[in-house]
Amino acid sequence: MIRFYFHPTPNPIKIALFLEEAGLPYEMVPVDTSRGEQHMPPFRAINPNGKVPAIVDTEGAGGREIAVFDSTAILLYLAEKTGAFLGRPEDRPEMLSWLMFLGSGLGPFSGQAVHFQFAAPEGEAYSKNRYRREAERHYQVLNDRLAGRKFIMGDDYTIADMSAWGWLARAGRVRKGEDDPLGPFPHLKRLFETIDARPAAARAREVGKDHPFKMTSDEETRRALFPSNYPPAA
């Protein structure tokens, strides 16, 4: 059984997609990041970095519980555990390169683009432009890669595609104000729509819908999500 620590944001939903695609049994454990539950000691014991997603595999190697955090690490762990969605063995180095490109580039720059356009104080024009343009540059790199390919690795649907899907689902926030945010990147748009049409993607989108996650942004939310912006209590 996989205990899946979840909040309905781009990185956790990648893991939901894998779990649904692979048909792995899992228990969703809600972590309401807007209420600061990611900073509580029980969760910090699983992920010292205080971020979702995280998993605990109750049937790990040797029959022991194994905790894994960071969405890229989790995708790799689950793919290796199941032998699924890793692509052809001879393509593994290239697949890992794209997976890391997504985990260290597209994801973080997309997240910062959203942050500065929606959460930062007014007057952050340089930061808004910087992160949005870098996110768009990553879109273009991936769009170019997909020219003539169905998936990032060609014909094989892999965890790299799942990783991309998680953040591409938020393209409307990354490219705020655009009626067709993926329109300038037609190959990337096709990839997103191909994955989004899969039954497992529809199921992944439903994960956590029955839990009352806090959806309002207030001082509690800001302190929970951006604790480094606040000095420690005296």
From TrEMBL:
The GST C-terminal domain, residue ranges: 88-218
Entry keyword set: Oxidoreductase
Pfam families per the UniProt record, alphabetical: GST_C_2, GST_N_2
Domain GST N-terminal: 1-86
EC number assigned by the record: 1.8.4.-
Broad EC category: oxidoreductase
GO MF annotation list: oxidoreductase activity
Full protein name: GST-like protein
InterPro entries to which the protein is assigned, alphabetical: Glutathione-S-Trfase_C-like, Glutathione-S-Trfase_C_sf, Glutathione_S-Trfase, Glutathione_S-Trfase_N, Thioredoxin-like_sf
Transmembrane segments: none
Biased composition (Basic and acidic residues): 203-223
Secretion signal, residue range per the UniProt entry: none
Region (Disordered): 203-234
